[in-house]
Amino acid sequence: MADGGGEDKKMKVLVAVEETEGSLYALSWALDNLFTSASDVPDKTESLGRLVLIHAQQPLQHFMHPVGPCMTDPHHRSFSVLFAVYATSSVIDSVRRAQEQNSRNLLERATQVCRSKLVEAEMVIVDGDPKEMICQFAEQMQADLLVVGSRGLSKIRRAILGSVSGYCAHHATCPVLIVKPPKGNHP
């Protein structure tokens, strides 16, 4: 950006994508409403903004499983015995490779949506809790806008699972646009 010259600041838009149709709907909405395709611009080399697609992979976790019958201590409190189940390194590597391939496939699908609208996009895959990683990356790239889809969770599921869009709306350092699919089209 020039210091008072005629060069315009290009908007940096971060769009979070995941495996839901609501996420791809939000991407399509952003492309249709925030970006003009190159065919709409006299100089086709002009970029109208920077679009970055982000996908956050959940980290692999070890699971705790209750084993055996419920036990009772002398104070009549019941409890279950828990054991950690650890996968072998070859299983973890296999799961990680499959997860990375799924992420690449998802982002390729999202990139195809962008190409169909003649908009170029960068792709980023991060590891960690999606809510936190999306907000951290938005701050790191100094995004002008974060676009997230809405899955239309019920109040109970949203309370239990948490909402990525709700978290981002409260914690992101930039404006957040939550795109809800039209009624009757909830994924």
UniProtKB/TrEMBL annotation:
Residues 90-180 form the UspA domain. InterPro entries: Rossmann-like_a/b/a_fold (IPR014729), Universal_stress_UspA (IPR006015), UspA (IPR006016). CDD domains: USP_At3g01520-like. This is (wild Malaysian banana) hypothetical protein. It comes from Musa acuminata subsp. malaccensis (Wild banana).
